[in-house]
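User: Predict the structure for this protein chain, please.
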Amino acid sequence: MTFENLLIERDDAVAVITFNRPKVLNALNTQTLTDLSNAIEAFKADPGVRAVILTGSGEKSFVAGADINELAAQTPVEGKEHARRGQQIFDAIENMGKPVIAAVNGFALGGGCELAMACTIRLAAETAKIGQPEINLGLIPGYGGTQRLSRLVGAGRALELLLTGDQISAAEAYRIGLVNRVVPPADLMREAVALGALLATKAPLAARYIIDAVQTGLDLPLPAAQVVEATLFGLVSSTADMREGTRAFIEKRKPVFQGK
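Assistant: Here is the predicted structure, written as structure tokens:
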């Protein structure tokens, strides 16, 4: 696949998507969002891809936000449509049924922070800066930031970040639970690829159901969420991968999962 604003690489079962607009710190314009949507759709449908990594080109930025030139020219109707389009694409990342790793190599601001939060797991370089500075432009986050940030770090910390527009360090992001791991910049992609390769060895259907259970359950009361979990447990019990995994355990060998 080739895209105008993305670079695509494959490392066996791990796909790497690199945002490639370094002159504007990889800002998300309409074309980049369209490219991202198409790439995610293609990798979701490809059984050979079992994990996806998102990162930015250059050393300065993961994604520095939405394209301000586009935002400045929007009408209210266009603004809502733009936000809904971004939300739908980020929802597709969150719910694609395969682990998506954000390798945050620099600025993850505004839409970049929202993009990282839509990923399954977030790794950050020690030099990364993360935040939702939309209030400084007279705006609010539009790609799910007000919702995912509060779910990840709690309402109090989320409101502080959203209302101040402050950028925080990778270390602070780790402290409040916004990122999973902080690593030296030189080690970021090596660790992201190693994690992706590890996740790619796991049972694909079980991974999908785990992601589904967590994402669905977050919006439900505990009793209803546990019904969702039990239903998915029943579904995964019917799979060839479950039979392979349990048989391999009994036979003391590594399982070979086929995603069936």
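The mean pLDDT is 94.
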